[in-house]
Design a protein that fits this description.
five-stranded mixed β-sheet, 301 residues, Arc Repressor Mutant, subunit A, 26% strand, single chain, D-Maltodextrin-Binding Protein, domain 2
Length: 301
């Protein structure tokens, strides 16, 4: 007879990419996960994954079995959570991906009181600035900063995000302070590379305008982008949830070029067609209330 523990082990191994990582997520030993996977394969009479020292890949049988196996595991988890929620308790596993800088500065401090109040929620929070696909990467939801573009996702806005062009006093003293969009073309920029092209996008009365300043430095992390701007390496377009304190204390100076950057949001998104759990909705409501509108990190300067 097929055991649910074996199916769960198989799904976890595929989503994690290795037995070791699956064992960490399941809070089991590596040997237990391997044994459960081997027992499932024996029961099915088919090899589900190819194992090598470097990587793990699905067999043809494994790929065919994965979709239904994942559905079974989610249904079991949702059933257990529904029973707990009927008793007024939020419980069960939850896996969310979030960006590093926002997570460290604001998401973590907002989540800790919620998790303390709901100790039966088993939250795994993966901090990574790369763009992830919640469905294929096994997340219940993602939290992201930016424009909401993926139509395969259902997005809930948690907070508005105000972004400002900034530079250090040292940079402005050496290179001057731009006063218009066209002036930016003669300046060095520090760009967030996870957005793709090294450019800045602004709203004007004539429509959207894209500015491509000279590349001073490209970085895929918001904290380091902030540090590079403070060190005078170029002009940066930074959200106030990162740059607010350093603008207030004068280490960074806001640059007004007569146009505002395109609007962005902090949002939570889950795959389309997947019914979000009560605990995910509760976390989203808690974060929205905690961040506020306008968000607490966005005072007037």
């Amino acid at each position: 007879m097929m055991k649910i523990e074996g199916i769960a082990a198989f799904v976890a191994v595929v989503e994690a990419g290795s037995v070791s990582e699956a064992a960490r997520r399941l809070r089991l030993s590596k040997s237990v996960v391997s044994e459960r996977l081997a027992e499932l394969e024996k029961t099915l009479g088919a090899m589900l994954v190819h194992r090598t020292t470097r990587k793990l890949t699905l067999t043809e049988d494994g790929a065919a079995f994965l979709e239904r196996a994942g559905r079974i595991v989610r249904e079991m988890e949702d059933a257990a959570a529904d029973m707990a929620e009927r008793r007024g308790t939020l419980s069960g596993p939850l896996r969310i991906a979030a960006p590093v800088s926002f997570g460290r500065l604001h998401l973590g401090p907002a989540l800790y009181p919620f998790l303390k109040a709901h100790p039966q929620i088993a939250l795994t929070l993966d901090m990574d600035d790369r763009r992830v696909d919640p469905a294929s990467d096994g997340y219940d939801a993602i939290i992201r900063h930016g424009a909401i573009a993926d139509t395969r996702l259902v997005a809930w806005k948690l907070a508005r995000s105000r972004r400002l062009l900034v530079a250090s006093p040292d940079y402005i003293e050496r290179h001057g302070k731009p006063g218009s969009l066209s002036d930016l073309n003669d300046h060095r920029g520090v760009f967030y590379t996870n957005r793709g092209a090294a450019d800045w996008r602004f709203q004007t009365e004539e429509g959207a305008v894209v500015i491509r300043a000279m590349l001073g430095l490209g970085i895929n992390n918001g904290d380091m982008l902030h540090d590079a701007a403070i060190e005078g390496l170029g002009i940066a377009l930074l959200p106030t949830f990162i740059a607010g304190p350093t603008i207030r204390d004068g280490r960074l100076i806001e640059i007004d070029v007569g146009a505002k950057p395109e609007p962005e949001f902090i949002y939570m998104a889950h795959p389309e067609g997947r019914n979000p759990s009560a605990k995910l909705r509760a976390i989203a409501d808690h974060l929205k209330k905690t961040f506020g509108d306008p968000p607490y990190w966005d005072p007037d300067f």
